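Minutes, project check-in

Agenda point 3 was the complex the collaborators sent over. CS summarized: two entities, 220 residues total, and the question is how they sit relative to each other. Sequences were read into the notes so everyone works from the same version.
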Amino acid sequence: MNVLAVFGEILVLLGTFFYFLSALGLIRMPDVYNRMQTSTKSATLGSLGVIVGTGIWAVGKGYSPAWVVQTIAVAVFLLLTNPISAHALIRAAYKSGIPLWEGSVVDKYGEHIKAKESDSENVKLAEIVPEEGDKE
Amino acid sequence: MIGLNVYLALIAIATLLSVYRVFRGPTTVDRLVAVDIMTTITTGLMVLFALYYGRMIYISVALVYALLAFGGVIAFARYLEGGL
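CS then shared the predicted structure for the full assembly.
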């Protein structure tokens, strides 16, 4: 058996194992934010392994080297778009008011939103107060 | 080596667990996260089938599928956020 085929098969095996781990995290974790955290990262890594490994395996089986180019194109596309869709989904979850798990320790996004709101209120007050002073 | 059956079995188990989360999930975003994971897994499965049938053109099908799934998930997220 060819060295490239063996290497590609090992990559595909690792990738499918990470697929399994991501689905396991989808079952195991307590709330939607933790589920997104565990499943998206490992699914991205697993798809990188499966897709690039398939290209290398195909070259080892005697197909043309264009397989590697095409599979790397698909892998780079997934690597760019998967975090974007995850970010958009989890932002939608936070905006639609799904509560955090009761064991959660920190909520940086909520603190950021509160700080922003208080800043805008301060700005409004600072705009209003001198106008009143002028009228008086 | 181990062969294609083990990889397909792992992918099938992962997809079944995601389907469980789709039916069970308490909120809408839970189901949508599970569908997102299923589309990622399906992209890898399409590339594996391209090697199984020995046709390079099927990889382009996987690329187009990934593109359409990305657009769909972004549209759903904007809708849930209230911006669509």
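Noted in discussion: The mean pLDDT of chain A is 86.
Follow-up: revisit at the next meeting once the mutant set is ready.
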